[in-house]
Amino acid sequence: MSTEKYIVLRSREVSSPTRGDMGTRGAGMNPFARQPATVRLEEADLTKRERNDLRRDPRTRAIALPMPLKLITPVRRQTADSVTPPPADTTATWGVKAVRAHESRFDGTGVTVAVLDSGIDPHHPAFAGVNLLQQNFTTEDPNDLDGHGTHCAGTIFGQDVNGTRIGIARHIERALIGKVLGEGGGTSATLAKAIQWALHEGAHVISMSVGIDFPGYVDWLVKTEGMHVNPATSMALEEYRANVNLFTELASFVQAFSSFGQGAIIVAASGNESMRPKYEISVAPPAAGTGIIAVGALGESDKGLIVAEFSNNQADIAAPGVGILSAEAGSNKLTSMDGTSMATPHAAGIAALWAQRQLEMTGRVENQSLMAQLVASGTYATLAPNSEEDDVGTGIVQAPLN
């Protein structure tokens, strides 16, 4: 009998909804109360009958076919040589200033962040002195061969490079670097495993600038399985839904873990599929999962900050994502990129500052309050008039000042 490989998230006990815990996507509410130790994530080769039995089992929290994963590709790349340098009296990038990180007394001390991406260039001067715990979930070189992960990490905790401040939380001493995507690609199963790894390694903030490749999956079904495009699209939609549920349940697991250990939150890129003003696309998975904070991208204009033309809607918060200067892999220079991938590490860095504030006040990080503080920090004060909530959520995230 033929089998297919599935991602299965199960608990050893039957979970039931807890009064007051039900919420909508992005609200961060936990629909199920459970002990994290009872949850198990695994990949299993299942027959059709075994899959259906698992779906009826009340202990099964999610079951999904792994879908192809892709980097949320930056819209533009430039080398530092072609980027206009900051004015002589300026030492911080515009993104660092826009989120007011340069005004904050908090610097990420005591906070652990996880970057689940294409890896990192550990030799870049932006990461000098940071304890990088690297975990390779691919079969290729453990370091960053693309540059995407290095750029994102630089925005979160990068040190100053040639007098330019690129990092939000510059005194983070420990960072978890999960390489979930390489030249050979990756899957949602890889990302799910990396989330679990980051949580058990003590991450307070998990940053993800990756997305599910829905068109790529449809194309694979057509070319490899010989399916017509219509049933292939229908099948892909079903697995898309199953994967959204998987990441929703993983976010619930992350939230439940806060009750038994250090809390953590997940921030993820909303995606770059929109082409404003022609059309707008809704937030893509994994950011579409309930309990994961979806980040939209902003750019500068003479009227104030505006939503980037590529930024997907239904974002929870927004952050700088156009013309972002950060670390360039394979060199000691900086490079500029655009994308919700670049906005997400700004939000993750700000989350690290709020997490530090919690640690100082209470000695621990709590999931729901950290999510609430990050989302509530958003402001429309510097945004262009008539900015829409569907595009920017609560507005641009802001650092805690005291």
Automatic annotation (TrEMBL):
Keywords for the protein's UniProt record, in alphabetical order: Hydrolase, Protease, Serine protease
Tagged with keyword Ribonucleoprotein: no
Domain Peptidase S8/S53 as annotated: residue spans: 108-372
InterPro entries xrefs: Peptidase_S8/S53_dom, Peptidase_S8/S53_dom_sf, Peptidase_S8_Asp-AS, Peptidase_S8_Ser-AS, Peptidase_S8_subtilisin-like, Peptidase_S8_subtilisin-rel
Region of interest (Disordered), residue spans: 13-35
Active site: 117, 148, 341
Presence of keyword Protease: yes
Family: Belongs to the peptidase S8 family.
PANTHER family the record matches: CEREVISIN-RELATED, PEPTIDASE S8
Name of this chain's protein: S8 family serine peptidase
Record organism: Thiothrix winogradskyi
